[in-house]
Amino acid sequence: MKVKTYILPAILLWILFAVPHGFAADKYYLLKKGASAWDNGRLDDAIFSYEQYIDTHPATIGIYPESYWNRKQYHLRNLLIAYKNLVEIYRQTGDHATESMRLDQLETLQSQGELSAKNRYQAGWILLKHERDDAAAAIFESIVAQQCRAYNPNHNKVLLRSCSKLVEIYQKKGESENLARLLLTLGNHFPTQDFDPRDLYRLAILYINCGSNDEGKKLLDKIAAEDDFNPSSPYIHARMDAYGRLIELAHQKDKAALPASRSGSEVEKWIVHLSQHYNYEDLPPNAAYRLALKYLNCDRTDEGLQLLEHLSKGHDKGAAGRRALFLLGRVAQSRENWDDAIGYFETYINRYPDPPFFALKAYSNMIDAYWSKEGDLDLAREDARLLADIVNQIADYETQLNLARDLKWKGMDQLAHATFSLGASEAEKQARKNAGTYQELRIHWLLTKYAQAIELFDIAEKNGKKALTLARRLDPKNSGRFHDKRERAEYIESQIYLWMARIYETQGRYNEAEPMLRSFMHKYPNDREIGYAGYALGQVLEKLGRSRDAADTYSAVSHGMWKQKAHTRLLELSSDTSL
């Protein structure tokens, strides 16, 4: 018993003192749990995890494991992330009292002097976002003051970010004296030779935003004058942005001055300089897109459109290419080039049906272009309502596919294709959601039906093949999941055989059309379409040069109107060939 008496206090002492120092420096798993819960909309769970993380953090409880000191600023950064997310959730849920309490704690944390310059900036940013402007300004000012006392070139980026936030605060509060003092501090204390082009650009924009255009332009000139014209440079984005701003400033100057010839303007000087040193095709897509925007805004439309066309074709898989294509449509619209606008928006919708928000914006613009092009556009009232329903995301995908076919019949091919793309995008999402079910089979059947009706044969063929693969599971030995809808699935399969044959025949792929028709006739000899299938097979065999086989096929047609057609064709063959 005495042994046990001594062991128990020892365990307690170990728990109290040894264990905290042996644990991880912070409970990072709680931070991850909080983020996961927030992403999935479980706000109560997120709050619980974030509060647990904050309230057990070494910097909060004052107990520091040895491992904490090795990565102290990393652990403090994690603590700031927890504060940032937690107070944002409190704001969203309307719990402003607890939000305020946690922000008070954050102010206390940063006032203890433990945070690095980067982490102090993050604390200031959180406070500013939650409208504690004075506390945030004090933090940003302390970062600037620290750089003045002990300049560290490694802290230039956080210095510039702090200055940008101070400009935002001073301008919001109308504190022009503080703003002037800040600009004087920047000019007197920080050697720009230590700034890389990205930092120089940020500083230049800061001056311009404060109305000091001349100071900003000097820095932009310095960036543009550097002789590193490598498009793969890590600073290429800063250089292109600098050129864009210089063009913008020159354009503003030209507009304010007396009219002058374009060739003599400063805008032209920078455009020529750019074209001499850079091949637009080598520029990073995002940098080229921003430059195109500057051209358009500065009335250099031809240069802007040239860049946008390059992006829309050469970088169509990326965000810059997508934005460029949409903008080409908008520019064409603004210039009343309705056919071009319709073409661009049609391409956009067909290429980028997702995300639907932007695809529907393109669709709405496309409809506007149609109406503007044809003031007396004869759209039935029901069609007009359905178009509006699609834009408002009310019409379901079957309605959209059906409308696409109707628009095709009315000769509005581009609007039909765009309408089909929107419906097909939603249909494919539903097919993935219902994989392996009768619903998936039906969706592929619908896509085959409507795609071949508007002559999108590649899409029709792809979905037809998927539908046939699913329908073959109706075999007695593996019909399982389709058993209760077997008759409907068989009807779908029969239709797909005929549609696939029609697609192949239209494309001159007669060797592929033949087995589709034979499969239909073999599996569905009593179908009401059997006469059509026999006549169609005879036509295919003729085109394959197999006249005798065609004649035999025509002879076997014995149903409906197709019997007479087959008989007529048989007589024509008999007179033309020796059968």
Structural class: mainly alpha
> What's the pLDDT, averaged over the residues?
86
Instruction: Give the SSE string.
Output: HHHHHHHHHHHHHHHHHHHHHHHHHHHHHH
Biggest sheet features: none
- Give the helix level as a range of percent: over 70%
What is the total tally of β strands? 0
In angstroms, what is the radius of gyration? 35 Å
Map the helices and strands.
Blueprint: H1 2-22, H2 28-39, H3 43-56, H4 58-61, H5 66-70, H6 72-93, H7 96-111, H8 117-129, H9 133-149, H10 156-173, H11 176-189, H12 197-209, H13 213-225, H14 236-256, H15 266-277, H16 285-297, H17 301-314, H18 319-334, H19 338-351, H20 356-373, H21 381-391, H22 397-409, H23 413-433, H24 438-453, H25 457-471, H26 486-506, H27 510-523, H28 530-543, H29 547-556, H30 560-576
Helix pairs in contact: 2-3, 2-6, 3-6, 6-7, 6-8, 8-9, 8-10, 9-10, 10-11, 10-12, 12-13, 13-14, 14-15, 14-16, 16-17, 16-18, 17-18, 18-19, 19-20, 19-23, 20-21, 20-23, 22-23, 22-24, 23-24, 24-25, 24-26, 25-26, 26-27, 27-28, 28-29, 28-30, 29-30
